[in-house]
Amino acid sequence: MTILDRYVLRQVGKPLLVSLVIGLLMLMAERFVRILDLTLGKKGSLSLVFEMLGYLVPHYLGLAIPASIFLGLLFGFNQMSRNAEIDACLAAGISLHRLARPVIALSVLIAILAMFIFGWLQPYTRYAYRALKHAVQNVEVFYLAEEGVFMQTGNRTFIVDKLERRDQRFYRIFVFEQYGRDRGTRTITARSGYLVRQQRDPRPLLVLLHGHQLEIKGRVDPTARELPKATSKLFSRAETPIGRKSALTFRPRGLDERELTLPELYATLDKPLKLASVRELRAEFHRRIVSILTILVLPFLAIPFAIGHRRQQRAYRFAVGLIILIAYQEALQQGSVAARHGALPIWLGIWAPWVALLVLASFRYYRSCFTLKEDIFDSVYLAMSKAAEHLRRAWPARWRRKKQGAA
Fold it and tell me: What does pTM read for this prediction?
């Protein structure tokens, strides 16, 4: 790697990293609020927040990496063009294609990293996030008890007079449990109790000490002649697991196409899953491949938008480039959804936008690096510049007329 290559990478790397960090923060801000709302009041809520956000980083990296590469190339080459460094290189016999060579190699390395993120990291972290979210949503309400407040968990209602969270102990507890609509009820009062974690059972064990139990079997009907059978007894110790195993045990990984790695997706392209059809599996596989290949096209798309004449408004070049990238991402997203539902074939919904982007990027890159022809978007930039100039001049005149009318 020559000094020139390192300089080009340094010029591109700084805005690339900055845009990547800012993009991640913006994408995760909304999810951060939702996670806070989900974990608020849970035991160890702060650590849960950061753990869930950590599982979401690979997902948002897949969205932020293409945009950060595009912006990094735009700002880096634009800075060199504005400082006449590209003109100096051209005068010294160094072509624009030679300057672009290190960033093309960088895009290959990032594409390999993206293959690992899309193919392996995202499926595992997505499953881990869903499992942790399920565990948080199904945490036993006994862990969230408040002193002197009635709380309900399933068919059980309880209230505690005093509690110690460190030892997970309750004092003077009242529990009312309804078995079913016609099966009866059970009422328990106890002096104290505590929760115990079980090794072979995900459900916590509720231990009650020195209490009284009243159990009524059958339906309580005031109009009936015979009252239901009732059993009353005292106990010194009673144990019962709380919650349902099905609610506390999350499903195995791989029932959803987004939780499968690339080799697993390829192996199950013709085998429908419990939560995914064959169309969804194929659309997900091709979407991941296209997302990886998109990174290889971005240098050829961004560099022609970054360079230009000194007097030309470069902001319009940036705007047109970003519009094309956003339109491509939207077309790819909507095409993927249509392919999942069978409305479009995969080659049209997923591969056609990528081929169109590749043709456009290759054509403009060739004209910019190997010919002296004008940019095909020059007329667009000129029209945008004239429209902005017209608005800039018309706005002060309109403001003056309103001010004179008010006077």
Answer: 0.76
